[in-house]
Amino acid sequence: MNPLDAYWPDAAQVAECLRTEAETVDQALLLAVHQPVTLRRRIAESKSEEAATENDLLEALMRPIHDGSSVIVALTGASGVGKSHMVRWLGAQLDRHPQRDNMVVVSIPKTASLRRVVELILEPLSGDEYDALTHDLGRAMEALDPPKAAELLATALAEELEPYAQRLMDESRVARDHSQGPRITAARQLRELVRDPDIRDRWFKNVLLRIVTSSLSGTADPAHRQFQPSDFEAPETVALGADLRDVVNRALAWLASANGTNRTTAAEVLQAVLDPALRTIFRFTEALHQRTIQEVVNDIRVQLLEDGKELILLIEDLAALSGIQQPLLDIMISESDEKGVRVRAPIRTAVAVTDGFLARAQTVLTRAKVEWVVPSEGIDEATVVQLLVELTGRYLNAARWGIDHLKREFETAERDCDNLYAWVPSFDSATLIDAAFSEQLAAFGQSKAEYSLFPFNPIAIRSLATSVLKVDGRWKFNPRAFINEVLTKTLSQRPLFEQGAFPPANFRNPEVRSDIRLSLQHRGFAQDQRGRIESMLFHWAGDPRSLTTPPSVSSDLFTAFSVPWPFDGEGKKTSAVSLRTGNAPSTTTAGGSGGSVSGASTAGGQQITVDSGRTTVDTSEEATAYGEALEAWKPNIRLVNDISRRTRTLVADALNQRLEVDDWCLHGQKVDFNWFWLPPASNVNNPTTGLMIELCAPDMDIPPHIVAGLKALDRWDIKGKSWDYTGAENDYAAANVLLDELEHKVLDLMLSEASRDLSIAALALHRQDLLLGITNRPENPSLKDLLTDAPEEPLLQGESIDAVGRKALEQRRKATGGRAHLQDRLKKYLACYQGNLGSTVMAIDTERYRQAVKQEVEDKWVFALKGRGPRDTDDVLDALDRLSPRSIEVLLRDLSGAVDRYLSPTAEAFGEDHARVSWRDEMKEIVDHANRQSSWPSGAIAPPAVHAAIERLSADGIETTIQRLHKMRVVEASPETHRRLVALTAVPLPRLIAIYEDVSLLRSFLASLSKTIDQQTGSIDDQAAIQAHDALIAALSWGE
After folding, report:
1. Which residue numbers delimit the AAA+ ATPase domain (predicted)?
2. How does pLDDT run across 799-820, given as a tens digit for each residue?
3. The CATH number of 30-142+285-373 is which of 1.10.150, 3.30.43, 3.40.50, 3.30.1120?
């Protein structure tokens, strides 16, 4: 058997000794585990505070009361902070008080039923009167049917809500304070709900029954007898708008609004009226023979006065005793003197209430004058941790003995009024183990009271408490939560310790540094071993930064738990362990001043200073804010803007330096930092569309090699993007693991997008080729054609062209823009260049080109890869937009309109067998003849313009153009885009319009000439002249 087993309490000892409800704790255990804390004394009127001790609290309760006033000591604080424990502690002090024989102490636990509370109050009566009253009280309580009582409670609550709302309105009006508005609204809405029989049956019935039953029978959880915000979450059986009255629907809508705030307000408002409502249905006055509880207690105090005794009430939680709160409040404030004469025994009350309760009981607060606050917030981290260390030591020591042994020791020990704790035996002092196990035990350390902390140590106490007591970066002192969530749950793992398997892998979610996880893998530890080592390192060894230097904890810690020692050297058994906070405390208390709790614990002759950070260890790794942020990175915790931006930039810079993109015919391309997606999805600037590379998959822990690689790149960047520094070889290896993984993803992405971009560029250039007349092949474009410069085209005068032509020309001009830039992109996706920065193409990847031109592309054309060169110009973007499948129809429609407008009159001007030379000669003869006969139309077109038009229409190649014009006319439109383009651009639009303009000019000239000749012929008598003019007219037949 492992001797350390004796120091780990078994399940029975844990169950009986680690109790958090004070009323269930034996007084021996209460004193054995009590941890002195510093209180705060808050003055009721000024709200000023000052530190106070527990002795100050006791003295306040037992102060002289010669003036006949009642004594009220009100303990306040957050739930779980130990208020009830302090009330029980006062009871233990009173049991040893010199005046104990003159006291009648009535302790009222917070879990007691209302019946039991009344019985406890009546206990001083004793005798037949007590028996009669308690008998009748019991009968009255037993006669209550809980379901019927729940219905009565609903009615009583509705009746109480109306005056409650009116009272708040009156107070708000007098004080001119509208802060109570939400509570007034809540009271009105809730009144409608609790009065509605459908809502009561479908919803509130179970809630009210729970409260009634808990009040009648008592409960281990006082929350069961109180309204909770969750009680006001409507069940599925209550649907808004379904066969419910309008006022009920409005109330339901109000509850569902304000993100849950209204539900919290509803719980507070109903709780405020619960006390009088419960009194209405329980009717204690009838059970007490038509006397109120206050009257019965008054009779008791009269009798106690005759006996020379005082009445002391110890109320562990007044807020949990709805149904009898007001009677208790009345009893507390009832003074012993009337008109200067003592008529009843003095009364002293110690009462624990949750924060804010006394604000609703101003009379009590006025009488008390002081609130005694058990602090939970505003305590520095080091103090909270030290309090937890001391608490852990006391509970472990008590649990090791067990309750029976503690009770025997307590009952047989001599009473020491000056030291209530002198009798507590030390398990460590009474237990002997051999030297080897003694060293292991010492490695876990001791509390200031010299109780062994095994199986915890100060570092583990802080680490395990962090998830429970640290909220939004602030520590809270909550003993109940610590005992339940840390001590009890950890000690329940004793069977694993006995099997040599504690702590298990992933014990309480260890979040060791990525470097550590990788080091453990590299050192060959099996997976189950790595998990246990990680648990030890994170919780018991202070989450070290490196395994190259041991932490300042002993290797005996690992030996005790049968966990392999993962560090390079031996643990330091004599050095100090500092858990950093910035200030190492000496003696601190919960109040922040010197007092009863020391900031130091001992561990086997070592001095362990409890602090709020992790273990400080020597490491060659340079810690940076960026590295720390990465270690805290979780799948559900997004990186702050600067960290996420730096992560993307580091990865992109490293990959750009690493990749030789020209080896992949990706000249001028680069990795864009905007591609990288970082979990969670809410991270700022995460790509949602377009190019995306997941650094790691969502909804999974951040792999350690990613964090390690990023931290290595961070140091590489800090060192001027150099690997020349101490420890760089390890960083280089870590960075390579990350970059190798990302390189494949990046290359796959870039090659895929390059193929897509290449398809877009090739298709855009091909459509430009068709528009420009460079090719008439609808499919399988020639690479040579794609790289051909745009041909020169006729210069057209815009003012002479109608709206249809101008619109089509403008569309065409924009569609054929940016050609040089598109060709440059095309080459960069296909070519090998002379050097990474060169511009000379040395080879072409023809296979990539063949595959690209066959690839289907989406309707919208946008280049994904940005490259290192200039950004795409507006001309390029405009051309891509107009040529893309989603917009090409607009271009085709405008082209078709222009062709329809110009093609017919132009084609009809020429025969299919048009002979340009003879036509030119004939046209020139007409012009010359008109000049010789002085027949040139006055005010008509000038001779040079006519000569120029004739020259253009008889230029070399015009026959081919005229043939194409006739083909344009007969080719039907095709549903295929490229075939339609071929049909519409057989003669490029500028050329078509230019021919049309020249034809129109000549026709206009010939028409004017014919008219002039007709006029001249009518005035000529000479037969020869008439014949000459007839010959000229005959020559004008082309114009007809």
Report:
1. 69-378
2. 778 899 999 999 999 999 999 9
3. 3.40.50
- Amino acid, res. 634: K
β-pairing, 103-108 vs 310-315, is: parallel
Instruction: Label the pairing between strands 341-342 and 337-338.
Output: antiparallel
Q: Which residue has 């930092």 as its token pair?
A: 673
Residue in 920, 918, 943 with CA at minimum distance from that of residue 930: 943
Beta bridge partners of 833: 841
472 to 66, 475, 829: CA distances (angstroms): 49, 8, 52
b/e string for 583-597 if b means 16 or more Cβ within 10 A?
eebeebbbbeeebbb
HSE-CB of 376 using CA atoms within 13 angstroms: 20
What is the H or E stretch that residue 703 is in? none
Burial (Cβ within 10 Å: 0-12, 13-18, ≥19) of residue 341: exposed
- Ranges of each domain in the chain: 30-142+285-373, 146-275, 381-609, 620-886, 889-1038
- Which residue, chain included where needed, has tokens 């093609």? 903
CB 616 within 8 A of CB 404: no
- Whole-model pTM above 0.85? no
Quick one: pLDDT band at residue 436, thresholds 50, 70, 90?
confident
Q: How many C-beta atoms surround the C-beta of residue 499 within 10 A? A: 9
CA end-to-end distance (rounded Å), the chain? 125
How far is Cα 165 from Cα 150, in angstroms, rounded to an integer? Answer: 22
Amino acid at 1022: D
Point out which residues pair with 608 in neighbouring strands: 577, 601
The predicted model gives 398-411 an average pLDDT of: 93
Helix or strand or coil: residue 311? Answer: strand
What are the tokens at 831?
């070519």
Overall average pLDDT of the 269-276 stretch: 92
| Higher per-residue pLDDT: 837 or 846 | 846
The torsion angles phi and psi of 402, rounded to 5 degrees, stand at: 90, 155
